[in-house]
Amino acid sequence: MPDHDETTAFLGRVAVLGSVPSARPSTSPAVFWAALRGRQNECKTLAGLVAAVQANRSQVLVLRGEAGIGKTALLDFLVEGAGRCQLGRAAGVESELELPYAGLHQLCGPYLDRLDSLPLPQRDALRTVFGLQGGGAPDRFLVGLAALTLLAGVAEEQPLICVIDDAQWLDQASAQALEFVARRLDAEPLGLVFAVRETDQEPKLAGLPELQLRGLGTEDAAALLESAVPGTLDPRVRDRILAESNGNPLALLELPRVLTAAELAFGTAAARSTGPLINRLEQGFIRQLASLPPQTRLLLLVAAAEPVGDIPLLWRAAEELGIEADVAATAEEAGLIEFHDRVRFRHPLVRSAMYQSATPAERRQVHRALADATDAEASPDRHAWHRASAALGPDEAVAAELESSADRAVSLGGLAAAAAFHETAASLTPDPIRRAQRSLAAAQAKAGAGAFEDAYKLLAFAQSGPLAEAELARVDLLRAQISYNSIHGNQALPLMLAAARRFESLDGAVARGTYLDALSAALFAGRLAPGPGPGMRQVAQAARTAPRAEAPSKADLLLEGMAILYTDGYVASAGPLHRAIQAFGSEDLTVEEAFRSAWVAAVAAVDLWDDVHWDVLSRRHLEVVRKAGALSLLPLALASRAIFDIHSGNLAAAGSLVAESNWIAEVTGGENVLTPIPASWLAAMRGHESQAGQLIQATINDATASGQGVGLTMMNAARALLCNGLGRYDDALVAAQEAATEPLELGPTKWALAELVEAGVRSGKADVAAGAFDLLSEMTRASGTDYALGVAAARGALLRDGDSAEELYREAIDRLGRTRIQVELARARLLYGEWLRRRNRRADARCELRTAHESFSAMGVEAFAERARRELAATGETVRRRTVETQQDLTDQEGHIARLAAEGLSNPEIAAALYLSRRTVEWHLRKVFSKLGVTTRRQLRRHPSVDQLGMPAG
């Protein structure tokens, strides 16, 4: 909680301001502070926020409410009482919704001289989006991290409060970046306060701490109304205004303005209240505007159409229109606008009322003047937008200028803005072919921005035009990509196949790349893929007809191997897939490979039981995605790596990755459909029956609903593992059979076959176990790795007896001991120990079971550890139940930071990897050092809990 004395001092400062009398119009201190009547609790909340920031505790607050409810007044209250805090300000402007990073530039502009202090990728990201250097569009979340680092650095010198008004009108790129910052604040002396108008749209900044503003109570509303009416107020008029305003402060101040003194005093006016309050307020402003001289109204219209409040630009445009300089005084005297360093309307509703009440011809006239007054070199996008708004009909020159603006927006990462530029360009394009092409470009940008419904509409419009064959193929491909990226479900596969076939005669490389994308879609769709036969087989049959590359790339080799797998079978594909995986593992991944095909190669390594390349590729994939700052791709990379860590027995590291994936889902607004899969596997491997059961079932439900067959297979395989660990073999049998329905599906079906052999033997279904082993054995022999042959030997021993069984157990332990999959090694020892005990070789059994128990316990594989403990007890050895140590109660985030610190990463490197500020990392490390009783990173690396944190000892 904030310090009481600081809060009291804050309220004392603003109370003095609130008592200042003044005869100025509505922008005066008296009227301003009168607007805070009835806001004592809100003011106390803001005072506490300031006190917390001054005490080095990060704060975020969203003020949410209807227009006129007092959000801006409360922000000004906050600014007046900010004490020793620095202040950063920005405001969304409706007409700047399509200009990428305009809002972020407002906030960060004063601190651009500090960019050189940022890590290089972050510095380049901000320099690119602010137009200070060229380059491709940076990942939007890297921009957010850069903004966090920049603002946190400013706050380190002196606490900083950033105030963002009208956040509902922030451009999408700025809104995403600032929301990222808000969700990652932790231990910085930095506060973010947003004011958001309630609309019918999806609420912005949902899930952040918020303060919902309601109307004033009757007593405060009446007092505010009386303060706004200097003369006599008829009780009937008073009651009507109070009823109509519903406590809205702006309405209480503005509704009396539409009545004459006589109407206020004697109640002679007829009721004028129809429609929503905002509309009535706008109508009131419109009536005030209508009474002004024509030139004054024209100047106000120029100001309303010019979004940034640029005074020199305003007067250049006014000069173009022949507006005299003294007209500004008339506008200010009306109390509707102020001209100081920037233009400021009394309320945003005044701006919208002025613009909406103008005729189309008047708007075009004003935008034409603003276009002429705007420097096309310095502000090409605003110049193009004004020209478009001034156009009377189709105009190719303006459309071409907008197209250039769209290209610049893409380079800044502003896909929503690029879509708007392309869409407007299309509407102004006279040639039907070019119009269809620009509509297609707009659809591409809309899809990239996540506006999938809008993208579909634009695609339909583009498709109705005269498109060439290559462009029609792009339409097919974009439809497929939208389907795949929106839900990772099963609808994308036939669309991708259609697009790939269409590209075969147009561009072989694009066709092959699209087939590889189709493989990704088929991996997710799995058994739920639509069409005849399994999805992977559909892709494979089509891909084998695609034009072959003269010099095959790694991706081409991977596509070929996968196609052989699903047409000629596992044995025929093993050699080509081994070559493809080795090609991927032989050198570092490029960014394109990491983004597009590395995870498929890692899954192929799983399918081949190639633990070395599974480890290498999943690690490199995660490293490249992290380094590139591609937060939107990080969930898949985290999931891939977490699954490896789970099977290698590094459950603490996997837990950190799952936690990180949850954080990513939080900062990206939930854009993470993959987190439940590794989380479920982790709970299953730990043997946490209740948690795992809930996660598995929830994931199955979601996967079924979205057409993600991979989720069904993964979860049934995880359930089989869980039940085998718990000794519930009948349940394990059912789950494993379900998971192994399509044995050629990549990855988890092979694990399911191994679980099925064990469950079949233990539940007395020897025929089921034997059938599963035949399939497993065929595949593992073709693979030939120690991992494959070790698993096959351990499961094969379950079906044998006597010396042959013992030889297989020893072979399994020997082979698995040379792999990175330590859980399987411990399971082989457990199976061997169980076999030895049943043959009354108790001493030999104790040796294997004790080793297995210690391994399981150290890894945190609790159900199997308990199974080993029970077997040891049956040999006569007493073993205390053991659970994983808690690492002195480190949180998941502290454990993750500790692991990275012990691996040698610096604080800035950890901050970049985890999308945190450097100060937050330092704060968490101080807590880690205190909890573990260490003072240096060397001591941290040597701490006994190092293995449980998932770090290499040494």
Report helical residue fraction: 55-70%
Uncertain regions: pLDDT < 50 for 5+ in a row?
6-35, 268-275, 883-887, 950-954
What is the radius of gyration?
33 Å
- Mean pLDDT over the residues: 83
Enumerate the strands of the largest sheet in spatial order, edge to edge or round the barrel.
2-3-4-1-5
Q: Tell the overall outline.
A: globular
Largest sheet: 5 strands, parallel
Number of strands: 7
Task: Tell me the β content.
Answer: under 5%
Distance between the termini: 43 Å
Brief overview, please?
This protein is 66% helix and 4% strand. With 954 residues, it is mainly alpha-helical.
Q: Can you characterise this structure?
A:
This protein has 954 residues and is mainly α. It contains 49 helices and seven strands. The protein has a five-stranded parallel beta sheet with strand order 2-3-4-1-5, with helices on both faces. A two-stranded antiparallel sheet has the order 6-7. Strand 6 and strand 7 form a beta hairpin. Helix 7 crosses helix 8, helix 31 packs antiparallel against helix 32 and helix 43 packs parallel to helix 45. The longest helix is centred in the middle third of the chain and has 19 residues.
